[in-house]
Amino acid sequence: MMLESPVRGKRARRVWREPVRKRSSNVTFAGWLPYGEAYAVIAGSRQKVQLFIMRLCFSRRTFAMAFPTQRQESFFYGHMKAFEHFGGVPHRISYDNLGTAVKLVFEHTGRTGRPRKEVSAFVSFRSHYLFESHFCTVGQGHEKGQVEHGVGYSRRNFLVPIPEAASFEALNQHLLDRCLQEDLRQVARQPMTIGQAWEQEHEQLLPVPRSPYECCQMTTVRLTPYSQGTFETNRYSVPVKRARREVTLKAYPFTVEIWDGVELLARHPRCYGRYQDMLDPLHYLPLLEQRPGAFDFTKPMKEWRRTWPAAYDEMLTDLRQKWPNGRGVQEFVKILELHQTYSPEVMRQAIEQALQLHCVHLDGVLYCIHEIEKKDHMPSVDPTPNLDLSHRPDLDAVGENQRVNLAQYDQLLKQSW
Predict the structure, then answer these.
(1) Which one of 8, 293, 354, 390 has the fewest CB atoms closer than 10 angstroms to its CB?
(2) What are phi and psi of 162, to 5 degrees?
(3) In a 3-state reduction of DSSP, which class is residue 117?
(4) Does residue 407 have a pLDDT over 90?
(5) CA-atom Rg of the chain in angstroms
(6) Widest CA span of the chain, in angstroms?
(7) Are the C-beta atoms of 239 and 227 separated by less than 8 Å?
């Protein structure tokens, strides 16, 4: 398997066009897009993405995945997802001399020599999956011809025209679907399709470990008095009760997790900008309950109020009119804290029903949530048929237009005396 780092200029034009003659299930190639980047429209914004490509040599089965950057955690995460896609781990993976896996050793002459030293993180990753690594000669693109062809083919067929997706998750699902469609393709001068060849090659691959590798950058951070942890100039919030404590931050390619020992405190989308705040309004609700006067001025609540349903504003207005001097805001904050237990859709329905029933308070919302869940989890059963009393006309008339005789209860009371 081979990984290709971005190249440009004359080296990019010297890509070897002939097929690799030696094909074995024990050799696999992987790489980043050789021209460095591709483009996609994500959440309405056109941006550069980095393509990770892995290709099995025998079957030519290809895996493609898009990342915001070519950082080491993305490099490892692409491997892990590719192994899941192939259903196994190749025996040997060939790489270009990329800095996320290897460091070149310089000779006394000052020129780059053949000796290399693998970085410690890559050694740990390779030891987890038990595959052998191989690095090509510097500047010799013909040693990785399949991945040179594979990345170009993937870009022309998977990313033209420029795809539009709501997120990186949706974009990568699009790329995975296109890779699966390639299993039906039969390469020229080959007796079988790519999928049929992979069925033969799959038996030769190493098994995927049960426990996945932690493809993340891990560091220890100290929370600020504002209950935030800083990573790469960006601040990520945690619940306010955890302020001023040291925690473990794990930065994955698409998410950031903050842990206190074995307890997960917060999970945020990873931000690759600079000096940005990733704030979860639920983390600050206990503090706002103590200080209701700050409700309208906090940054997390301002951002949340731009997107929450209109029923929320209606309930907040009713509570403020019903209970002024901050008590109405405190009641509304208690209702918002229910988001930690129930889904946003259930909360929206419950608040709308509470407004219709004129039970605008915490207990009313809880009652509506109970009724919604009761309705959703109620088993579907056939209605019970009416009891047939046609053969007992004396009983059939009981209960229909019949006045209740309370004197019978008086007789029971007299007998008890």
Answers:
(1) 390
(2) -60, 120
(3) strand
(4) no
(5) 32
(6) 118
(7) yes
In 3-state terms, what secondary structure has residue 321?
A: helix
C-alpha angle 250-251-253 in degrees, rounded to nearest 5: 140
Identify which of 233, 322, 320, 313 has the alpha carbon closest to the alpha carbon of residue 270. Answer: 233
- Could you tell me which residues come within 8 angstroms of residue 298 by beta carbon, excluding any fewer than 6 positions away? 281, 284, 288
> What integer pLDDT is reported at residue 242 of this predicted model?
75
Query: What is the per-residue pLDDT across 148-162, written as a single tens digit (0 to 9) for each?
Result: 676 778 888 898 899
Cα(93)–Cα(135) distance, integer angstroms: 9
The string of DSSP letters for 310-327 reads HHHHHHHHHHHHHSTTTH
SS3 content of the chain, % helix, strand, coil (to 5): 40, 20, 40
* Residue 361 · residue 333 · CB < 8 Å: no
Please name the fold of domain 10-202. Nucleotidyltransferase; domain 5 (3.30.420)
Residue spans of beta strands (DSSP E) within 36-159: 38-42, 45-56, 62-67, 92-95, 102-106, 112-118, 132-135
What does residue 221 show for φ and ψ, rounded to 5 degrees?
-125, 155
Instruction: Please state, for a pLDDT cut of 90, what percent of the chain lies above it.
Output: 60
In this structure, is the dihedral angle defined by the CA atoms of residues 341, 343, 346 and 348, taken in order, positive or negative? positive
DSSP H helices in 1-108: 10-13, 72-86
pLDDT single digits (tens) 221-242:
999 988 999 999 999 999 998 7
234-237, strands of its sheet edge to edge: 228-231, 234-237, 277-278
Q: Which of 8-22, 54-68, 319-333 has the lowest mean pLDDT?
A: 8-22
Contact 215, 72 (CB under 8 A): no
In order of 50, 164, 306, 361, 383, the CA distances from 45 in angstroms are 16, 9, 20, 41, 53
Contacts of 404 (CB under 8 A, 6+ apart): none
Our CA dihedral for 377, 383, 384, 387, rounded to 10 degrees, sits at 150
User: Which residues, in sequence order, are bridge partners of residue 30?
Assistant: 54
Domain extents in the chain = 10-202, 217-279, 289-377
Strand, coil or helix: 171: helix
Q: Which of 43-47, 186-190, 241-245, 286-290 has the lowest mean pLDDT?
A: 241-245
Nearest alpha-carbon partner for 33 in 6, 10, 54 = 6
Which of the 8 DSSP states describes residue 183?
Answer: G
Q: Assess contact for 117 and 110: CB atoms under 8 A.
A: no
Is the model's pTM score more than 0.90? no
